[in-house]
Amino acid sequence: MGAGHSHGHADGGNEKRLWLVLGLTSAFLVAEVIAAAITKSLALLSDAAHMFTDVAALGIALAAIRVGKRAADRKRTFGYQRLEILAAAYNASVLLVVAIYIVYEAIQRLTNPILIPTGAMFVVAVLGLIVNLIGMWLLRSGSDDSLNMKGAYLEVWSDMLGSVGVLIAATLIHFTGRGWIDSVIAVGIGVWVVPRTWSLLKESIHILMQGAPRNIDMDALEKSLAALTGVSAIHDLHVWSMTSGKDVLSLHVVMDGSKRSEQELLAEIETAVRAVGIHHSTVQIEADDCHEEGAHHH
After folding, report:
1. What is the pTM of this model?
2. Spans of the chain, pLDDT less than 70
3. What is the phi/psi pair of residue 203, to 5°?
4. Alpha-carbon gap, residue 167 to 133, rounded angstroms
C-alpha cells in the first residue's frame, strides 16, 4: 500500500517561521543575560535559561526539518524522519533539567534574598513578552501537525509565561521591597513548565519506542481486519509512528481458502487501514495451511 501524504509545503512554511523566531529570540537572549547579570534577578535568569533552551530548540527543530528532507538511502531506508522526534525529546530533556535547577536555586535563595533593581527588570520583561508573543503567533499554526514544531512552540510559550512572571515580580518587588518574591516567581515558572515538558518527553519516547499511535484503537482495528471476507486469521499486527503524523503498519493475513483473490482482499485491507489514517503499510498474505504465498505489497 502506498506511502502517503507529502509534507514538503508545510515544512517550508514552518522553516521560514522558525528562522524568524530564532533571530528574534537570539537577539533578546543576549539582552536578557546581560540584564540578569546586572540586576542579579533569579526570575530574569530563569527566563534567560528558558530563552537559551529556546534558541537550542529552534536550532535543532530547524536542523531536523532540513535533514528530514533528505531522501531515503540504502543505509536509512526510512530517511531521516525520526530526527524530528529526537529533537523534541532532547528539547524536553534540557528544559526539564533547567526548570529543576532554577527551582533548586530559588529555594536556596529564599533564605538569603537580595534586593533587585526593578526598573531594568521590568523593561526587559516587557521586551521579552513582546518577542515571545510574536514567536508564539508565528509558530502556532505548525504546532498541531508536528511534534518538532510543538516542542518549539512549547518552549516559546513557557518563555512567555516566564516574561509575565518577571513582570509580576518586578511590579511586586518595586511596591513592597521584598526580594524573596523574585525566588517565588522563579519557582512558579519552573513548576508551571515541568508538567507540559514532561508530557512532550513522554510522547517523544513513546514514538522512539515504536509504541502504537495514541489516535489508533488497536483492538478495533484488529477486529475490523479479522472480520473482512476471506480472512481466516490475522497475526503480527504492528502499528507505529515514524514521526508525528506518519504512521506505519505491518500485518500477516491468513486467507480462509475461499475463492476471493488476494488483490481484492488487499484492496479491502488498504481501505480499512487508510480509514484510520495509516498511509504506509506492508501486508503479507498467507494460505490457510500457513505456507506463505504472498510477498510484501506497497
Report:
1. 0.68
2. 1-12, 68, 77, 79, 142-145, 289-298
3. -65, -40
4. 14
Pair 58, 21: CB distance under 8 Å: yes
In this prediction, residue 244 carries a pLDDT of 72
Q: Which domain holds residue 151?
A: 8-208
Q: Which of 208, 231, 251 is the last residue of a domain?
A: 208
Same domain assignment for residues 202 and 236: no
How many Å separate Cα 71 from the centre of its chain? Answer: 22
C-alpha to C-alpha distance for 126 and 167, rounded to whole angstroms: 7
Residue 14: what residue type?
Answer: N
Candidates 43, 10, 56; CA nearest to 109 is 43
Task: Please give the order of strands across the beta sheet that includes 280-286.
Answer: 231-243, 246-255, 280-286
Contact (Cβ atoms closer than 8 angstroms) between residue 8 and residue 69: yes
Q: How far is CA 295 from the centre of its chain?
A: 36
Structurally, how many domains does the chain consist of?
2
pLDDT number for residue 251: 92
Q: Among residues 156, 187, 208, which one ends one of the domains?
A: 208
Residue 246 in grid coordinates: 506518519
pLDDT, position 260: 76
Would you say 198 and 96 are in contact if contact means Cβ atoms under 8 Å apart?
yes
Q: For strand 231-243 and strand 280-286, is the pairing parallel, antiparallel, or unpaired?
A: unpaired
Q: Is residue 76 part of a domain?
A: yes
Q: Which has the closest alpha carbon to 272: 252, 242, 249, 295?
A: 249
How many other C-beta atoms lie within 10 A of the C-beta of residue 71?
7
Residues 284 and 253 sit within 8 Å (Cβ to Cβ): yes
Q: Which cell numbers in the block locate residue 54?
A: 529556546
Q: How far apart are CA 69 and CA 60, in angstroms?
A: 14
